[in-house]
Amino acid sequence: MTPKKLIFLLLIIFSTISFIRLLILTSITSDPIPTPPPPPPLSSRNHLRSSNPQTPKPPPPTPPSSDSDPFSPKELLLLQTLISTRSPRNILFFGITPQLLDLAMSNAAGHTIIFLVNEEFEEFDRVRARGIEGIGIYYIECEVMAKQAYELLEYARVTPACRPNDGPTYESRCRLALRGLPEIVNKVRWDVVVVDGPGRGGGPEEPGRMAAIYTAALLARAGNSTDVLVHNVDRTIEKWYSWEFLCSENLISSKGRLWHFRIRGRSNSGRFCS
């Protein structure tokens, strides 16, 4: 083979390799970061007192896309990559599924806490049956129903007690703050917080994730830098409350129905978002 033909062949090989690498990189990059939707407006006092039957009402929570709502492969890959890159980590889960339980077990050298909320008795039995050591499992009650989401969002916007502060969550007088959390939750600086509960179905009579997202925002601000991931953001509540308390400027990536926020803590600001 002549030198010219050899050079030509090498150029073809290198070009093919570069094209394949480009395709691989394109396939694993994050989905486009969504544009923030217009937030639900605050009602005026007259609006709240009006008895006009034509007064607009908030839309009902968006139904889920499936009954079990598992993480898709690309959503799960985002979580796996985040946890494995800097293991061990301090990880807090609101809600648990078999997929998340496997992730919790992969953080054996770190500190992991799982909150099982209200209806998750089956998940509790599954965790207990596997005899996992080194993982704190707590059962907490959540009395905030999904149908209260719009009312509580308006309440939080005008209530000084719901503004971010440096105190522990159990001292918060905001109705959105989760009660009965163990003291260790406020002592640990969390690296990752995953919100996938309560409320699997997203129906109006089910527990909503408003309090979990709000509490996750408080805990994240108490740390140095915390990654907060919220699942099922195709639903109205998860979307509204993520924008309100985790903030669009902190959204660094998205995969399917999973949003990934990075919250810089130690802020003296009296607001969640800039």
Write the layout of secondary structure elements.
Blueprint: H1 3-28, H2 45-49, H3 73-85, E1 90-94, H4 98-105, E2 111-117, H5 121-129, E3 135-140, H6 149-158, H7 184-187, E4 192-195, H8 210-222, E5 225-231, H9 236-245, E6 251-255, E7 258-264
Structure description:
The chain has 274 residues and is of the alpha/beta class. The protein has one domain: 3-Layer(aba) Sandwich (Rossmann fold). It contains 9 helices and 7 strands; from the N terminus they run H-H-H-E-H-E-H-E-H-H-E-H-E-H-E-E. Helix 5 links the parallel strand 2 (111-117) and strand 3 (135-140). It is elongated and about 80 Å long. It is a single-pass membrane protein. This is Glucuronoxylan 4-O-methyltransferase 2.
- Percent of residues in helical segments? 25-40%
The average pLDDT is 77
CATH first level: Alpha Beta
Cα-atom Rg, whole angstroms? 22 Å
| Structural class estimated from helices and strands | alpha/beta
How many domains? The number is 1
Question: Between the first and last Cα atoms, what is the distance in angstroms?
Answer: 65 Å
Run of helices and strands: HHHEHEHEHHEHEHEE
- The CATH topology, please? Rossmann fold
Under the CATH scheme, the architecture is: 3-Layer(aba) Sandwich
Largest sheet: 7 strands, mixed
Query: What percentage of amino acids are in beta strands?
Result: 5-15%
Strand order of the largest sheet: 3-2-1-4-5-7-6
Flag low-confidence runs.
24-29, 43-68
The count of DSSP E runs of length 2 or more, i.e. the number of strands, is 7
Helix count equals 9
Q: Specify the overall morphology.
A: elongated
